[in-house]
Amino acid sequence: MEPKIAFLFPGQASQYVGMGKDLYENSTIAREYFDKACDILGFDIKKVCFEGPEENLKQTKITQPAIYIHSSIIANLLKDIKPSMTAGHSLGEYSAVAAAKSISFEDGLKLVSLRGELMQMAGEMNKGTMAAIVGLDIIKIEEACKLASDEGVVQLANFNSKDQIVISGSINAVKKAMQIAKEFGAKIVKELVVSGAFHSPLMEPAKEKLNQKLNEIKFNEAEFPIYANVSAKPTKSGEEIKNNLSKQLTSPVLWLDTINNMSNDGLEIAIETGPGKVLQGLVKKINPNLKIFGVDKFIDIENIFKSL
């Protein structure tokens, strides 16, 4: 019997200057995708991906389409591998939805481009930040957020692994929660370089316009189950996938539960499909028994077929 394979798609913070350049140089598909993306977006995104500057690539409205394009190219180059399931971390969920053919590459790109712009605008409207907390019990982190809530909005935003949680909210509230987490004995407490309080109620201003766009796009039944950030449960329903993407903007990313649920459903091999190695690190922490590979560069494509 064929082993159960999942494509896992990375989110923001996986970008780097030079991303996709070797794909563009070695693959007709990559050239088609990048050229099509430049037409849809109305600017030369491949130039920003390949040459930077990093300051531009780090802007949410550029980062999100850049990672989506890169991930979609890799998924296409791996089309001879038939995944049994898929998931994406935050932004990566859009790459997963496109890979499962619930939406087209073009529609996904329009969505992530708008999502990036709206999230950047919401971040400017409602100033907020995020912080990673490592080595502290989830209940203690929830308590820290509750104790800091007199300073404003603060909540758990990313359940990345058992010992790595990201909190999100208004600047003063997050800083107070960080201080309390240190007092509670967290090993690492680090503010993240982000342009807003993602996956918190402070992203609410972005929701209405994103919903309008989501409703304009046809969502088909997915070819294989997509495990949603908001529920960590699988679905192939187009309507459910659309609703999950809407809720995801202001809800926590349940990555820990997602990987555990995939494992319980028989997952044996996971492939991080896109730039960076963030998800490989998280998967190893969550379930060391899973085989995990990464495909980021053109050379990785040849290697993955040898490894499977």
Overview of the molecule:
This protein is of the alpha/beta class and 308 residues long. It has 2 domains: 5-123 and 201-307, Malonyl-Coenzyme A Acyl Carrier Protein, domain 2 (3-Layer(aba) Sandwich), CATH 3.40.366.10; 127-191, Alpha-Beta Plaits (2-Layer Sandwich). The chain is built from 14 helices and 10 strands. It has a 4-stranded parallel β-sheet, with helices on both faces. Strands 4-5-3-6 form a 4-stranded antiparallel β-sheet. The longest helix is centred in the middle third of the chain and has 21 residues, at 105-125. The chain starts with a strand and ends with a helix.
Topology, please?
Layout: E1 5-9, H1 21-26, H2 28-41, H3 45-51, H4 54-57, H5 60-77, E2 85-88, H6 92-99, H7 105-125, E3 128-134, H8 138-148, E4 154-161, E5 164-170, H9 171-183, E6 188-191, H10 204-216, E7 226-227, E8 234-235, H11 238-248, H12 255-264, E9 269-273, H13 278-286, E10 291-295, H14 298-307
Parallel strand pairs: 1-2, 1-9, 9-10
Antiparallel strand pairs: 3-5, 3-6, 4-5, 7-8
Could you describe the largest sheet, including whether it forms a barrel? 4 strands, parallel
Give the number of DSSP strands.
Answer: 10
Q: Give me the side-by-side strand order of the main sheet.
A: 2-1-9-10
Low-pLDDT ranges = none
Q: Supply the helix-strand structural class.
A: alpha/beta
